[in-house]
């Protein structure tokens, strides 16, 4: 798949909240995930789908309630695509808030090989 095709499929699945299917279908098994420096105890960099899933589980263990979310239409440039994402969320022991981020993905040989989430976790 081309980067545009991967981006389109990512967007289609994200609209339905099918994160596991996104990972299974679109990610390389050795993909890298990079978080912005954050105030949580999430690792900033993990490698491989098992580690990415573990990080995701660790994040959702901090969630008291997920009220909604969305993913913006991706923009493609060469082997990269980016989109905005937001979550209306209440983390345990914290007030409800809207967390917004920019996500940048690198695609090589039809698979996502890296993802980076850029956000300000201190708001």
Automatic annotation (TrEMBL):
Protein name from the UniProt record: Nuclear transport factor 2 family protein
Superkingdom assignment: Bacteria
Taxonomic lineage of the native organism: Bacteria, Pseudomonadati, Bacteroidota, Cytophagia, Cytophagales
SnoaL-like domain mapped to chain residues: 1-119
Family annotation (InterPro entries): NTF2-like_dom_sf, SnoaL_5
